[in-house]
Design goal:
Length: 309
């Protein structure tokens, strides 16, 4: 018994020391643990002059599932979701250009059409001629337009609170953007709590040292993040895809959080009416990131949909 207590105390002390002295190392270890739990491995591939980092795991047979993260996110936005998917499907989650470990230079455009064509080149490079594609927020915008531009490459489409369409009710984010304000920008470390409360219905408290890491990452890429935001926001507000939804021929699943403050739930009705072969699910007491807030419930719906297609 004393030996067990000693081991537990040693582990606790090691974690505390890592948190206060080497918080980034502990953060990276936790990220690696999440990837391991979902059977995801990091890979890299050169596409033209650019190197794409991505996570891949799961069953190798059949058409793979490609999931795209939202604004300010990266490939690990899907690491919590992965354990519920990889038992049945091969999952691929890339860092999109402008985010994560991908190219984040200021001297390029990050508009949706450009990102769609870059994604197509990435899929060609990893030898994925056809996929089930999905995305959250900005990633959903890209996935939606990808399904329009490359219908032969899409087996099915899943949209998680996607940008790119306008509903009957303007969201808090849209109202602020029309005033020239970026609600997703961080001005200091304390702003991280505001952002977490903005995207999640019930945000999970984040340790202070991890908030510092999160803010430092955003601060280091402030200019490119601002550029990407306004290119996306401008397209979503001035050129939404509402009138083009009939171009989507792939069977589509629309997943939304009822209490999304970034993109209003009224968009669901627009998407469901505009996409001919679609079905929609709305989760109560859920915000902008259902795959993180409710991974098990979201994946249950998602897997049932994929099983049909």
């Amino acid at each position: 018994m004393m030996i067990i207590l000693y081991i537990l105390c040693t582990i606790i002390m090691a974690v505390l020391i890592a948190y206060f002295v080497f918080p980034k190392a502990l953060y990276d270890l936790m990220t690696a643990s999440l990837r391991l739990r979902g059977g995801m491995r990091q890979k890299f591939i050169k596409v033209g002059d650019n190197v794409w980092p991505y996570l891949e795991g799961g069953r190798g047979e059949g058409v793979p599932l490609v999931l795209l993260h939202g604004f300010g996110g990266d490939k690990d936005n899907w690491s919590i979701y992965a354990p519920h998917i990889t038992k049945d499907h091969r999952l691929i989650a890339p860092d999109l250009p402008g985010f994560g470990e991908n190219n984040r230079s200021l001297d390029r455009d990050y508009d949706i059409v450009s990102q769609v064509h870059r994604l197509s080149a990435f899929l060609d490079a990893i030898n994925v001629p056809k996929c089930h594609i999905g995305g959250n927020s900005m990633g959903g915008f890209i996935a939606l337009q990808f399904a329009m531009e490359y219908p032969d490459k899409v087996a099915s489409l899943t949209l998680f609170n996607n940008a790119g369409v306008m509903g009957d009710v303007k969201s808090e984010l849209a109202i602020a953007a029309e005033k020239g304000e970026n609600s997703l920008a961080l001005s200091d470390v304390s702003d991280v709590d505001r952002l977490m409360a903005f995207v999640s219905y019930k945000p999970v408290p984040m340790p202070k040292n991890f908030k510092k890491i999160f803010f430092a990452e955003a601060e280091a890429h402030r200019e490119v993040l601002d550029k990407v935001f306004w290119q996306i926001a401008g397209a979503g507000i001035n050129h939404p895809l509402n009138d083009r939804l009939g171009e989507v021929v792939a069977p589509s699943l629309i997943i939304w959080g009822r209490h999304d403050r970034l993109i209003d739930v009224s968009c669901v009705a627009v998407l469901d009416a505009g996409i001919k072969d679609s079905e929609a699910v709305i989760f109560e007491e859920t915000g902008h990131i259902p795959m993180i807030e409710r991974p098990k419930e979201t994946a249950t719906v998602h897997r049932a949909f994929l099983a049909k297609h």
